[in-house]
Design a protein that fits this description.
The complex is a heterodimer. By secondary structure, chain A is mainly α. Chain A has 2 domains: 251 residues; 225 residues, no CATH class. In chain A, 75% of the residues lie in helices and 1% in strands. Chain B is mainly α. Chain B is built from 23 helices and 7 strands. In chain B, the strands form 3 sheets. A 3-stranded mixed β-sheet of chain B has the order 1-2-3. Chain B starts with a helix and ends with a helix. Classes of the chains: A mainly alpha, B mainly alpha. The interface between A and B is large, with 37 and 38 residues.
């Protein structure tokens, strides 16, 4: 075997660099915003948002239409993977960020929208998510998670008030613990196996030599890190506070993009933790994750029942949806990756529409306490009806794409169950199905107050139709189209990769 | 015209709903005219359907159908998922479709006086109309489910916004109960997608050559290819075509819902479990005791026209679902569960009647009598012979006239005094003789007096149950007790409220208690006449249903035998 020299490595890196052009474009955009900030001497200006938007549009355009396919799916010596999953996460993350940016730009009388650092942090989050979805190499996972977390800590404190300081501190402490645990277990893994790449053959042969208990303890570090990012129970405690205090467009971003990236990591690990490679760990993997999913579904749905504020309701709802996302990701290696992809895409659309509409109602009514929204359905019929459709989608009822997403996900789970006869999987699927009843109860609370209750006193402050209204209309329409022509949705996803 | 007639039935109300939504607020009062025109058109189309159906009766299976590809999803390991826009009408559904167009039309006239949020009301009402017809016409299970679920939302709002005092409680209870039921059905749909395939579509997808024009022999050749493994699992097209699903050969041998799968869950075989899920799902809708508790609340709180629609049409989807989905697809489980189904039917009959005896609210009394009458539907279906199933369909049809009539008449009283308490009235016959006459006839029709449609229905059900091998003989005897109780509560109510000297709880009601108005005659008399006509000329209905019922029973029996054969292989 010929020795690999430094020059070989360098030339191989430079050959592979073009395949990372989308990430590169995001990084360039990030630098451009920083530079603009410097030129404008740190003054607030909307130009940061526009630069971000243009950069993101170029990146997604490149990704969708000009992307090069590398000869091998493994790039940079196993650090980066270029496959359908990574492409999917990139597209979803870019879409989410574009929506966030559009929305931030239209958010009137909010301080953060013309701050340069806000966009820098959003782009940083995006970069982290893109890399997280493109790797199962544990070193790369760690780096991507840190990129996400560090940007996240700062972004939650953008409002600079006392409550956001508290929540950002909470987030930081949770994040620090989770990354500490991850790093600690990674150092052990490296010590035992001599590599951090689960795709390399030595990784598993060495790891399987360990006692099972040690394997499980090491696996828990990774599990906890994913659970933290996706705010799965019991690592969800930071989410409600962060969601309540962070700028709203960012909350929508938080509730979707990092979750899909982290779920993709679970999918990748699920692909490698197979009965052949990891005979011991595999069965625990197949028990632990369904257990986490069941806990997440229960915590999310039951806690959402108790919420009186729309934003907090959405927080717990998005925890409940994390459960579904994880379920789809867990089932994907056995059954069908399409379930995961469709669920992720539909979830992105639903959540952005829901957050957008809730903010609109919040602006009109001056409160996000749901019981204060009574009778507003008469006053604001259009957003109220849109919100009804979105809520129906979030429950997962026809005729919305939410139904198709849930149906396919549960079918994938059912398929896994019928092949593996895993009781845990059956329970997770069953609880997922019947959590819909609970979900209906709390999601309908909002239309219930909007339409059923009467209220005479209205503090009307009608504003003109903003393009955010157009945005949420389009998203809601997509939810309906996604039901009636779910084949188009899948075709669009398939055509990209 | 003919080939698109079924679509018109579904889409005319839908388009009308859209029109109503976009009416300018000044023209809101035209909403009711739009609704009337749309439902009248449907009524007319329904009449056309009736004649077309008679002409096409002898063709096997569907007298009329439309089929269009809806979507196909290539889901990798899960195979090809497909669904069609497939609607059709046969002997099982024709009576339900005719009933729906009539009752939905009656409902519009009964809603004429709705004043608050008129546009919203009629838009939701038309959406409901469209989804009700869709449910009865759909022959693709996923399409059926779409319409089935889509009934919930308009109904939720119709009860919750235009209802009585406790409308919010009643509407959310209705929604949650029915949603639980439909999730049970969804679980079975997922199981069916995983376990079955569509032979014709699979053959076309894989490119199996057609040697004959005969669809059946083509399907057989594809089934053979699948059995021998010539067609791989991931090439199967999974489509829940309700005309194909009953064929046991379309269920994959090693799948979850295969008859040879001996896995058990809490002592149930998985096929038995699937049937049970469907029974609960449709049983909630029907409603079947003990899953009925949402119904009295919903009826009491709903406004009169919504009660009419709920009792007249919506409950029937439960019984229809059992006949169209549960029994044909799981004949083996249906046979082994039939004693239970019949038992629940008898329980509903007796419990509903007993509870009706104790009611103080006139509307609640009618609601419990509905529970009791729907029990006959279960008993008839469980008998699984021509008499029983025809009787069950006849009961659904007949109850579809009589219960709306009763709710309309209860509404007449409520409109005048805003009180429905039975004990608050006495001797109403003195001031409202015509009303008393009509309600007396309605009570007799409902308790099953010979000469009215209810009698024929119950007679058929009982004959079916007595001669059925699946129903123990004591059960129809107990059901007879239910009829006696029915006579009891109706006659007692008649005596308490309408006979004797006039006594009212508030003397101020005296002036408002006027007799029936022309509009109320228009609403009630056609229904009285229908109850009478279908009691005197049962062949009008039976001629429509006979073909479908005998095909259904033949299919269930054959497929059950085939399944037994497959199981013992």
């Amino acid at each position: 075997m010929r020795e690999v020299t430094i020059t070989d490595r360098l030339s191989s890196i430079s050959e592979q660099l073009p395949y990372l052009l989308p990430e590169g474009l995001v990084a360039i955009t990030l630098l451009a915003v920083v530079l603009a900030n410097v030129i404008l001497k740190g003054k607030d200006h909307r130009v940061y948002g526009w630069i971000t938007l243009v950069g993101l549009l170029i990146a997604i355009g490149y990704l969708c239409f000009f992307s090069l396919t590398p000869p091998s799916s493994t790039l940079f010596f196993g650090l980066i993977q270029w496959d359908q999953h990574s492409q999917y996460v990139k597209v979803i993350a870019l879409l989410g960020t574009i929506l966030t940016t559009l929305w931030s730009l239209s958010a009137s009388n909010e301080k953060f929208r013309s701050k340069g650092e806000y966009y820098v942090l959003v782009l940083g989050l995006l970069l982290g998510a893109m890399f997280l979805g493109a790797s199962s190499h544990l070193l790369m996972v760690y780096l991507a998670l840190e990129t996400l977390s560090l940007s996240g800590y700062l972004a939650t404190h953008l409002k600079e008030d006392k409550r956001s300081a508290e929540s950002s501190m909470k987030y930081l402490l949770f994040g620090a613990v989770s990354s500490g645990v991850l790093l600690y277990s990674l150092s052990w893994v490296y010590g035992v196996t001599g590599t951090l790449n689960p795709l390399s053959p030595t990784f598993w042969s060495q790891l399987n030599g360990l006692p099972l208990l040690a394997q499980i303890v090491l696996g828990l570090g990774v599990t906890f890190a994913i659970a933290f990012k996706i705010s799965a129970a019991p690592a969800h405690l930071w989410a409600p506070d962060v969601y309540e205090t962070a700028p709203l467009p960012l909350v929508a971003f938080f509730s979707v993009v990092p979750k899909i990236a982290a779920a993709t990591l679970l999918l990748r690990l699920g692909l490698v933790v197979s009965p052949e490679t990891a005979p011991g760990l595999n069965s625990y993997w197949g028990t632990l994750w369904p257990a986490i999913i069941v806990a997440t579904l229960l915590v999310g749905n039951l806690a959402a029942l108790l919420q009186g504020k729309a934003m907090r309701l959405m927080t717990y709802s998005s925890i409940a949806h994390s459960g579904f996302l994880l379920l789809a990701a867990l089932a994907a290696p056995w059954a069908s990756v399409d379930a995961f992809r469709i669920y992720g895409l539909v979830y992105l659309i639903m959540n952005f529409a829901a957050f957008g509409l809730i903010q609109q109602l919040h602006q009109h009514t001056g409160t996000d306490r749901i019981s204060q929204w009574k009778g507003w359905g008469q006053q604001l019929p259009y957003p109220a009806i849109l919100l009804l459709v979105v809520m129906i989608a979030l429950v997962g009822l026809p005729p919305t794409a939410g139904f198709i997403a849930k149906l396919i996900t549960l079918s994938a789970v059912f398929d896994v169950y019928s092949h593996t006869e895993s009781v845990w999987m059956a329970w997770a699927g069953g609880i997922g199905l019947f959590s819909t009843v609970v979900a209906l109860f709390y999601y309908l609370k909002i239309p219930y107050f909007l339409f059923f209750k009467k209220n005479e006193i209205f503090a009307t402050n009608h504003s003109r139709i903003s393009y955010r209204e157009v945005l949420v209309s389009v998203l809601t329409l997509l939810l309906l189209i996604g039901f009636f022509r779910s084949d188009l949705m899948l075709e669009a996803l398939n055509r990209l990769f | 015209m003919e080939d698109k007639l079924l679509s018109y039935l579904i889409f005319i109300p839908l388009i009308a709903a859209a029109l109503v939504v976009f009416l300018p607020s000044k023209q809101a009062q035209f909403a009711r005219w739009v609704a009337l025109v749309a439902t009248s058109l449907n009524l007319w189309l329904g009449a056309g359907l009736y004649f077309l159906f008679q002409g096409a009766e002898d063709t096997d299976g569907l007298a009329l159908f439309e089929k269009q590809a809806w979507f196909t999803l290539d889901l990798g390991g899960l195979g090809q998922w497909s669904a069609d826009y497939f609607v059709g009408v046969d002997g099982i559904s024709i009576t339900m479709v005719l009933l729906s167009v009539l009752i939905m039309w009656v409902g519009v006239i009964a809603s004429w006086k709705v004043q608050t949020k008129t546009r919203g009301y009629f838009a939701l009402y038309l959406l409901l109309t469209s989804s009700v017809l869709g449910s009865f016409l759909a022959l693709d299970l996923l399409l059926f489910y779409l319409f089935f679920e889509f009934m919930l939302l308009p109904m939720y709002f119709l009860i919750g916004i235009w209802g009585g005092k406790r409308r919010e409680y009643a509407s959310i209870k209705f929604f949650l109960y029915t949603l639980v039921g439909s999730l049970f059905i969804l679980a079975v749909i997922i199981g069916l997608y995983a376990s079955t395939y569509h032979p014709e579509a699979t053959g076309e997808y894989v490119g199996v050559e057609r040697t004959t024009d005969d669809a059946l022999s083509y399907a057989r050749s594809v089934q053979e290819d699948v059995e021998t493994g010539m067609i791989a699992q991931d090439q199967l097209v999974r489509k829940l075509d309700l005309t194909q699903l009953p064929d046991p050969r379309n269920t994959l041998v090693d799948s979850v819902l295969s008859i040879t799968n001996h896995a058990h869950w809490l002592g149930w075989s998985l096929r038995g479990l699937a049937f049970l899920l469907l029974l609960i799902g449709f049983g909630i809708k029907l409603p079947m005791v003990p899953l009925h508790t949402w119904l009295p609340d919903a009826h009491v709180e709903a406004s009169t026209p919504i009660s009419v629609v709920l009792a007249g049409v919506l409950l029937k989807i439960g019984g229809y679902g059992l006949l169209r989905i549960a029994y044909p697809i799981f004949p083996d489980a249906a046979v082994s569960f039939s004693t239970w189904v019949a038992g629940f039917g008898v329980l509903s009959i007796v419990y509903g009647a007993y509870t009706a005896l104790a009611q103080t609210d006139l509307k609640k009394l009618i609601a419990y009598s509905s529970v009791s009458h729907m029990g006959f539907v279960l008993l008839g279906i469980a008998a699984l012979n021509t008499e029983g199933v025809s009787g069950a369909i006849y009961q659904m049809f007949s109850h579809g006239f009589i219960s709306p009539l009763l709710f309309l008449l209860a509404g007449v009283l409520y409109d005048r005094t805003h009180n429905r308490n039975i004990a608050d009235y006495r001797g109403l016959g003195q001031v409202m003789p015509k009303y008393t006459a009509v309600i007396g006839v309605a009570f007799f029709a409902s308790l099953g007096l010979p000469g009215f449609s209810g009698f024929i229905a119950e007679l058929f059900v009982l004959i079916g149950a007595f001669s059925s091998e699946f129903v123990p003989t004591w059960m129809p005897f107990v059901a007879l007790l239910g009829i006696v109780l029915g006579a009891g509560y109706y006659l007692w109510t008649l005596q308490r409220m309408f006979f004797g000297p006039l006594q009212l709880r508030q003397s101020s009601w005296r002036e408002s208690l006027t007799d029936l108005t022309p509009r109320e005659y228009l609403l009630t008399l056609p229904l009285v006449i229908a109850a009478l006509l279908f009691g005197l000329f049962p062949q009008w209905v039976l001629n429509l249903t006979n073909g479908g019922v005998s095909r259904l029973i033949e299919g269930v029996t054959n497929n059950q035998a085939l399944l037994q054969l497959l199981e013992n292989l």
